[in-house]
Design brief:
The structure is a homodimer. Chain A is built from nine helices and nine strands. By secondary structure, chain A is of the alpha/beta class. Chain A has one domain: Rossmann fold. In chain A, helix 4 links the parallel strand 6 and strand 7. In chain A, helix 2 runs parallel beside helix 9. The relative contact order of chain A is 0.14. Chains A and B meet through strand 1 and helix 9 of A and strand 1 and helix 9 of B. Chains A, B: InterPro entries: AB_hydrolase_fold, Esterase-like, S-formylglutathione_hydrol. Chains A, B: It holds the Pfam family Esterase. Chains A, B: Its EC number is 3.1.2.12.
Chain lengths: 277, 277
């Protein structure tokens, strides 16, 4: 892996790396914030999954999370949202193809070769981070919108792998909303039964580990009614006895101004799980 | 003035307005952060002047200043960096024309008609803010790079008008560096004597009010040696007995990661001047 950005930030370093991903079969960028404590010890890692159209840049330039990571001594890792490059399949529109990987493993052509963001996030990227950076194996995961879907499904599918999970404005039931239906039809095919393995509202019904879910959602979010629908997850979690803290915030929209306003509370939440006894 | 963006942020509102500027003869955008306290009282205002190539968006999306403004009860106003539009003169390159107004009043063609950012920032914009928003007449000013030059020169030229001034990585001596020489030749003409009225290092020699100057500068800044040269201002301030706190920060570069890391201290500095007895 090659470091392509290196900028002092809150006493630590906001870096961006480029590497050849075997899982995705393409060159990928990911961002790493190393807080000042990383000079002396191995630190836990909070993975952040971004939403539709984003790259590794959105979170690191707009969320203001570095301040809190420096306070708590946590590494932040923000990957890109899909495989990239001229050799990678793409589509018209912002909600399919590059920038819209949906954190799953595609089974259909022309996507199956490269669109394996699930394996990338769960296996390849943490292995790379833990082998090459001062990172411990203590992991937490969070994300926004499509990335909130990614964080929730990845945590629910991997008991024991993450100490905590949270999301902002997540797509909680992709099998029931048009963003998910479009993407899953393309990546997974017409058989809707196969979609359930990538839907937090389905997964929570039988999750073997009751990892508490923290979700912040703005009530002024322009996608709330048609694409996000957190009440679907809330009902399923309640029925399954799965702990969920769904916090609704009047006025806030889908933007990074919402994330910036509450990311400090999420980092503190993860810090308690990652650094607590 | 028309509100074109309105987003909840740290309990307040990050807004963007559009208006017809009489001074500049064009349509302008400016950003306003109203902290939660603005619902109940008139608040002091910190004006932020951005650098080359920026619009009203850079500071509000990248600096993370809203958190501190909400803590201290201060309105943030971030204007654009030049007049804009098809009818406004422009030039090739990022350092002259649109995006590069240098916060002065141009005297030369084709710039003199629209390039009057000094009058806009000192007179028209505060009048608009104070007439239409819950803003008091207590003002502070800060900025970055070209905007740091703007903040310093505007404060030095207007004794009593600002309660405090600060800058990140400012151009302190535009008459002695290539960015300034190019812009001043175009906007002000070949007579270098006329340039001195727009150069902080010149102005500090005879400033009637000894308003303390707070400057943060990264030692890893790629423009430090050729364009910024804060030691020129430091020597002039020392000779004139003008208080200057120049803080050099190892490793930090010219980016918003630097601004984000220290903007909290600047907002607190201005809050002491704006809200103190």
């Amino acid at each position: 892996m090659e470091r392509i950005e290196h900028r002092a930030c809150f006493g630590g370093w906001q870096d961006v790396y480029r590497h050849e991903s075997k899982v995705l079969g393409c060159t990928m960028n990911f961002a790493v914030y190393l807080p000042p404590q990383a000079e002396k010890e191995r630190l836990p890692v909070l993975y952040w999954l971004s939403g539709l159209t984003c790259t590794e840049q959105n979170f690191i330039t707009k969320a203001g999370a570095q301040r809190y990571a420096a306070e708590h001594g946590i590494i932040l890792v923000a990957p890109d949202t899909s495989p990239r490059g001229d050799a990678v399949a793409d589509a018209e529109g912002y909600d399919l193809g590059q920038g819209a990987g949906f954190y799953l493993n595609a089974t259909q052509e022309p996507w199956a070769r490269h669109y394996r963001m699930y394996d990338y996030i769960v296996e390849e990227l943490p292995a790379l981070i833990e082998a090459n950076l001062p990172a411990s194996a203590a992991r937490a995961i969070s994300g926004h919108s499509m990335g909130g879907h990614g964080a929730l499904t990845i945590a629910l599918k991997n008991p024991g792998r993450y100490r905590s999970v949270s999301a902002f404005s997540p797509i909680v039931a992709p099998t029931q909303v048009s963003w998910g239906e479009k993407a899953f039809t393309a990546y997974l095919g017409e058989d809707r039964a196969s979609w359930k393995a990538w839907d937090a509202t389905e997964l929570v019904k039988s999750a073997p580990e009751k990892l508490p879910l923290l979700i912040d959602q703005g009530e002024g979010d322009e996608f709330l009614v048609n694409q996000l629908r957190p009440q679907l997850l809330q009902a399923a979690a309640e029925a399954a006895g799965h702990p969920l803290d769904l916090r609704l915030h009047p006025g806030y929209d889908h933007s990074y101004y919402f994330i910036a306003s509450f990311i400090g509370e999420h980092v503190a939440h993860h810090a308690r799980a990652l650094r607590g006894a």
